[in-house]
Amino acid sequence: MKIICIGRNYIAHAKELKNPVPEKPVFFMKPDTALLPKKNPFFYPDFTNDLHFEAELVLKICKNGRHIEEEFAHKYYDEIGIGIDFTARDLQAECKQKGLPWEIAKAFDQSAPVGSFLPKDDFKNLNNIQFSLLINNETRQEGNSKDMIFSFDQIIAYVSKFITLRIGDYIFTGTPKGVGPTKIDDHFEAFIEGKKLLAFNVK
Ligand code: MG
Questions:
Q1: How many of the other CB atoms lie within 10 Å of CB of 76?
Q2: Cα(33) to centroid of ligand 1, in Å?
Q3: What is the pTM of this model?
Q4: Which fold, 3-201?
């Protein structure tokens, strides 16, 4: 499986990193080695001094497809979860400055912890899903899918023009504002509509 991540999908987050608001979805990928096995701690990598958390809603793909029309995109995912797009912000800044690809800053081992999923049919309105990240019991990020620049269906239509989606792939749909640095000993808990779906410690 592969993990596709959308960047800059919330205006307030694009602005906090001083990035322009995109006209088309921006995406990048993480390999399956970026997943964090359940119940494992996350080990702070030794190659960064500025590891940022980005809490994001995650779609689970349930049907193979390419060139998917936006109006049929909803048939291609059936579960929604929450994950952390860990980012080595110092390495990313270096890559951006030199115009280089971002993989070392984004795609490293365990850079994509993902929690349990909820059936899509449990949500009354996919354009109004509230989610949050607590670190050490303090709310650090709060988001709502209504603030996304590109909807789930628009993301699937766009990405599948370039890359075939397969059953079991994940799509990270972008982070709201409030990203920040991670520290050793932090305790992460992520929620959708008040349900805790992901928890781990940083070691
Ligand atoms: Mg992200």
A1: 23
A2: 17
A3: 0.96
A4: Fumarylacetoacetate hydrolase; domain 2 (3.90.850)
